[in-house]
Amino acid sequence: MLNISCTNNTILSKIFRGWPTEVKNNSQDNPALQSRLVETEEAEIKRILGKLNGNKTQAAQVLGISRSTFYRKFRKLKGGA
User: Fold this and answer.
1) How many CA atoms lie within 13 A of 35 on its CB side?
2) Residue 3 φ then ψ, to 5°
3) Which segments of 1-81 does DSSP mark as H helices, in order?
4) Residue 54: what pLDDT?
5) Which of 30, 35, 38 lies closest to 12 in space, CA to CA?
6) Which pLDDT score, from 0 to 100, does residue 55 have?
7) Per-residue pLDDT of the chain (81 residues; tens, 9 = 90+)
8) Cβ-Cβ contacts under 8 Å for 26 (sequence gap 6 or more)
């Protein structure tokens, strides 16, 4: 499962535009919301990878995160440590 922080996460910041600040900032206190956010981030990573034929470097650029952050999230998505 991916560990995410809504306030510092570029992927979700694109998704969360227009969401109330209290929802974004309190996601860590709400397990159901946290689970939904993880699912959303995973789906976005998969969607972008699919559009880019699996090119992880380009996916990181599109998502606005560093390659190392992308690879860390990708390993967790695939069940690695």
Assistant:
1) 3
2) -95, 120
3) 10-15, 21-25, 31-51, 56-63, 67-77
4) 94
5) 38
6) 95
7) 344 444 345 666 665 566 666 665 666 677 887 788 788 888 888 999 999 999 999 999 888 888 998 898 888 888 765
8) 33
Residue whose tokens read 């206190």: 29
**Phi (first) and psi of residue 77, to 5 degrees:** -60, -40
CA angle (34 as vertex; 15, 63 as ends), nearest 5:
35
Return d(Cα 6, Cα 38) in angstroms, integer. Answer: 10
Can you read off the two tokens belonging to residue 77?
Answer: 């998505």
Structure tokens, 74: 């990708």
pLDDT at 5: 42
Report the distance separating Cα 14 and Cα 16, nearest Å: 6
Q: Mind listing the domains of the chain with CATH numbers?
A: 20-77 (1.10.10)
